Structure formats: structure tokens, C-alpha cells
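[job 4471] stage=fold_predict status=RUNNING
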Amino acid sequence: MTMIESRTVEQSLLETLVNALLAERFLDHEALAHSTPLEGAAGQTPTLAALGEEVPTIERAAVREAGSQLWSMPLDGHTWLVMLVRPDVCQAQVLVPGTQIVTWQGDAPVGARCQVLDAEALMRTLARAFHPQSPEPDAGEQVFLKALATTRWQLTRSCTHAIRTRGLMAQPPMAFFTLMEQWASLIDRPYHPTAKAKEGLDEAEYVAFMAEFDQPVTLGWVAIRRDAMITGAQVGEGEQPADFLMTPAERDRLITELHGRGLAESHIALPVHPWQQRHALPQWLGEALESGECVVLSAVSERWKASSSLRSLLPGHDSRHSVKLPMAIHSLGASRYLPAVKMINGDLSAALLEQARGLDPRLGEALHLCEEGRWWGWMPEGASLFDEAPRHLSAMVRSYPAEVMADPACRLVPMAVLGTRLPEGEHFFDHWLDWCSTPATRESVCELLAAVCDRFFELTLRLFCLGMLPEVHGQNAVLVWREGQITGLVLRDHDSLRIALSQLSRCGLEDPEYRIKPGHANTLYHDDPAALLFWLQTLAIQVNVRAIVDATASHFDVEVSLLWQTVATSLRGRIDEVVTSPELHALLIEQLFEAPSWPFKQLIRPIIARAGGPGSMPFGTGESVNPLRQISNV
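[job 4471] inference complete, writing C-alpha cells
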């Protein structure tokens, strides 16, 4: 790890945090200085010239960045929080890249008026400002600070990744896909300051189990009594996880062990992640292990590789079957267990998506679904779908579409890859352009972005017209790349399909009757298409597409405005092409292009508000600028 790489991680983390704080209005928007960058009240708010004496990079950036302004917010009677900001397409203000955020004391001696803050120091400073009567971080702020510290060391460690892209496009489909998953793992969710944090892993475990280090993972196996098991919609008579996840030799050894221990008729063997077996099973399965309801086996399956989602693993042998397992680590503010209720809802969603494919020939042709209905979960007598212990021992076989995996010309590209540059300065578009023997120009880069957006928007809009929207952030939405063209989209993780019942009904589709825990927030059901549109604006565009735009602009030195215009043209074209309902067409144009603001999915406030504890990813909403309206004024 070089000092340059370490500084890059610190700066990246700071910028992500500050921009999220600005977007969620943690920082007082009224504090934006209305004076020009060269003016200010001496001895109170700093002038740019005075600030430049202490932190020269800020003054230089102000000269370089057109439209930048000095932003300041009073913390107490004599201290100000100060930074240089500029307007952005997706939010009102962002920190000027490469600059710092500082505290300023105008009455201090020259040379001692500024203190440069890193991400942790900024959050502690804000905690003191928000509740000066008790200046230490409260419980929720401590949870966030812990995740922030974990993010720092894990991002830094990931700079020494083992992703090898030489000859990438010549790799066979599964080897190519495994590399893509490693690439997508580097950042995890974009714009989330603690997305990379996998709390519960020490450094050795982080390297052993994160995809970007390309380490083989050996799965353990646990036998569960058959009458304490719940299974998925696609599990056939007599089918077991080993049928899909083990090599023939591994399966023979498992069968021999089950017979030898008298478990072959009474129990079914489930795979378990080695981290889960070491850390979680002793805590949550103590009584079941003592009674023999669950039995830890000596059988293993080897050569698995982590994907961009830590608990989902890809096979090291030639197979289209991957596996998703629970891990009691914390990531994105939630525990990564695998409850049966989520998989039941996934079965219901998959059935609805299959109906959509039958109703719309284009969806039937270009939208591909991972098979996720083969799952097994421990469900002891008297337990409910919402109990804690059972969600720590389960397994889902995820089978990638046979029609795609059997085509030697097809390559699967998670959209998160397109929103991530490798630390060495590499973008997937480099490989795509090389395959096409096309030089990297503004025009050629925009053509690739348009190709991605055209297919992505076409298929998501077709689903929207039927009253449903998958959770199409960059990890769940996987592009089908075939001989230089984007021919389709593969969806995975079906448990979060959002629906508008009124629109489903108009299209002849019925309520899937999701299982929702009584008294808990529900984000699956929506009253109408206008409410459903939230997920297209947030996860699809503000997270997924925005990350692609920003990574592409940075890597190829193309104007962000030009790339957003490409996005807007693609989206408007697909709306005109796909949406035949006048009411839906008018809604989409008004809300996507004409509305002064868009909804925004908050990241930091919900984590702090929950202050830890069990549950799915914390959820909250806010308001942000409309990027498509912004770009129309450029």
C-alpha cells in the first residue's frame, strides 16, 4: 500500500461522505455563502485568500472550478465549518473534487486558523455542533462512526486487489463473469459512504472472503432433520442442495458420510459459509446441535469464489449454479442473514416476472431471470418466518439462465462494473472498445453509454407499464453482452420486486400476496404507478446510471453534461417507443423530465436513526434536484 493509494482512499471517503451529508441536508443549505469566492467577513467567515494561506489546494481549486463557491456554516461563536462546493447535475451542491473540509477560527494566529478534517473528524465535529449539551456521539452516530472506520481500512486493503483483466474478453463465460463480480465488489454501492464496510470480518477474513482478492472458499455442510426444513417453490421431489452445488466426487463423499452416521434418511445436508460456521452457528444453533436436529458434517465443497455480494458465491467448476448463504455480518446497516420469508417473497416475485415475460414478447426475448426457487431453510418446530435463529441456517441455489450461459458468445456484465474504475485506471469500456477496434473518443464513449441505457431503460419501462419494478441497482441488474451488443438483461435477487397493485390489475395480474411482518415498514407495495416511479428515479438512475456516468466522465475525460444528455435522450426515446398508455406516458414525462425535484433515497439518516439492531437495510427518503431537468438547462 503506497502513501498515494492511502491518500486516495481518504479523499474518496471524505468526498462520498460530504456529498451524502449535503444531499441529505445534514449540513445547513442556508449556510452557503452568497458572496463571491473572494469576499467574506474578516475575522469571522474566511475569505478565499485567507483560507488559501492555510490550505492552498482550496484556493487553486476555486480558480480551476467554474461556478465554485466558498461554503461556510457556524459551529459555535467563533468556529466555522468551511469547504469549496460547486453545483452538480444530481444534487444542488457537491464538494469540489480533491479539496478538503476544514474548521476555521478567524481569531486564531495566522497559520493556526484552519484544521483539516478527515471523514471521522467531520462526523465528530458535527455531533458536537448538533447536540453541544452532550458533545459525544449518540448511539446512532457511534454506529455510523464504527462503520466509517471499518470502511476506511477495508477500502484501503482492497487497493491491493487481485483482479486480473489481461485477455478479459477472451475468457470463457463463467471465468469472465467471476472477474466481473470481483470488479463490481471494489466499491459496492456507489455514493454510500459506508457501503464497503463488512462489519464482523477481521483483516484475514476480509482478504479470504471478499471477491476482489480472488481467494478460493471452502464451504462446510450441516445436516438438518427433514421435518425441521422449509423449501422453495422449485425444489423437486428428492432434490437436495448437493445435487446442484457439489462435484460428483464431493457428493459421493457426502452421501458416504450421511449413510455412515445414520443420517441419510432423516436429514438433508445444507452448505454453510465457513465464516458463518465459525462465528454464528454456535450462537444460534446451540440446542439444535446438541439435540441432533442439526449435525455439522466433515464433508466440504471446494474452490468457490465470492461474488460482489459477499454471501453469494460462484462455482470454481463448470456450472451455472451459484449459491447464496446467510452471514451474520453487518453491511449497509443490516445483518446479511437469509430468512425464509425473503425467499418466499422471491418465489412470488419470480412467478410475477414470468407472467410479465409471457405478456410482453420483448420481455420474453430479452429479460432473463435467475432461477432462485431452489432453496432450503431450517425451520424448527414452533418457529415462525420472522424468528431470528432460523435465518442463520439456509441456502439458496441461484441458477443463471441456461440460454445465456450455454451461448459461448455471451458475457454477463453486472452494471456495477460500469460504475467502477479499477484503482490502476481501467474501465470496462476500454475492453469493449478494444474488442470493437474502436478508439476512445467522446462519440464512441457516448455510443456505448447509449447502448447500455437503451436496453436497460427499454426493459425496465416495459416492466413498469405492467405495474412492477425490480431493484435494479448495479449489483442486481446484469447486462447480456454479445459480440459487442447489449442484447438483454439478467435479473437476480427477486425478493425486492416493487409493485403497484392498481396497474397490475389493469394488466390482468394479481396481487402476489407478499409476506410482510405485521407492524413493520413495507416498501414492496405501492398505491399507483406514480409511487412506483420512486424506484426508477432512485436505484435505477440516481444510483446505477449516475455511477456509470461519473465513472465514464472521470476515466475518459468526457463532460458529465454530455453523458447526461445521452442518458436523457435514451430514456425519452424508450418512453416514446415502449409506453403506449397516454396516462403513463404523461406521468413519466412530467415526473422524469419536468418536475423541479426528484425523491431521494437517504443513506446516513436511517442508519443513525436506527442506531443498530436487527432488520433489513434502513430506509428513508428525501428530496433532490431533477438531473434530467438540470441537464436540459445546460
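[job 4471] summary: The chain is about 40% helix and 20% strand.
[job 4471] exit 0
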